[in-house]
Amino acid sequence: MGAQNKLFTRMIWLIDTVYSAGHIKMAEIDRKWARSAYNDAGEEEYGARNLHRHREAIAALFGIEIVCDRTTNEYSIGSRGAMDGDGARAWLVNTFAVNNMVNLAGGMKDRIIFEDIPEGARYLSTIVNAMKEEHQLFASYQGYKRAEPHSFLLAPYCLKVFKQRWYLVGKPEDHPEESEPRVYALDRMKDLVATDKPYNMPKDFKASLFFQGQYGIDRSITKPEKIVVKVTNYDANFMRSLPLHPSQVEMRHDDEFTYFSFFVSPTYDFIMELRKFGSKLEVLEPASLRKDFIDEIEDLKKLYTK
Description:
By secondary structure, the chain is of the alpha+beta class. It is built from ten helices and twelve strands. The chain has helices at 3-21, 26-35, 48-62, 80-85, 87-105, 124-133, 207-210, 233-241, 268-275, 287-304, and strands at residues 24-25, 66-69, 74-77, 135-141, 150-162, 165-172, 182-185, 189-198, 225-232, 249-253, 257-264, 281-285. The relative contact order is 0.08.
């Protein structure tokens, strides 16, 4: 594990440890670190100096404050409410917590099954550090439509996870005529290294606005529209427990069906997400999308009745 990866892992470990404890003293942090599976150097303590240095880095990178109550000398997360309400932060900490639990569990590893995640996460600390320093990356990238990888300078804007894959949003600096940033899958990166070349991060760029009205990372259609579907009451439970999109609204239900509306771009990714329900879901609006589903059904019928 490289030095940057070790530092990144150590900081996430600290967040998880303080967050899980609620309130914790330095001596307990030292004790837990000495027993941690991530303490591959065999350190006997985390160290107050490391703690204070990493607190500053955590605040800068993740927007998470680890505060100290001087009356009790206990550390805690400054705003647990903000932490709990932020999906990205919660996902990051929860993912690490599960991995940490499995590493500590020893013989339990064969009894906990994870989904395979395509390669690409190894570039995360390089990207996060480049975003923090506002330095360009030199990327070697091979999309599925290219026979060979191509190399270029890239200004990293933000990271996003979608369906177990990491994606980087960035602007290719070798093509100044392009005003819009692009989306790159990290598992299709052949190489990615930091440079000392600076870039100017647009002050008006917000990741949430870049993907607003979109499903996943597909931005082939940027204009969202109202989509209405009806789904069997049984399958509606899955949509309630894990909404397909933040705009999902449950409109009504009857004895057989529940009706949902979305305000989202009808991209290929979103259409495929609806299709996974098969005959359990019917598209009602808009008429153009309903026709697309009818055409797809006809094509499937032809395919299976040859």
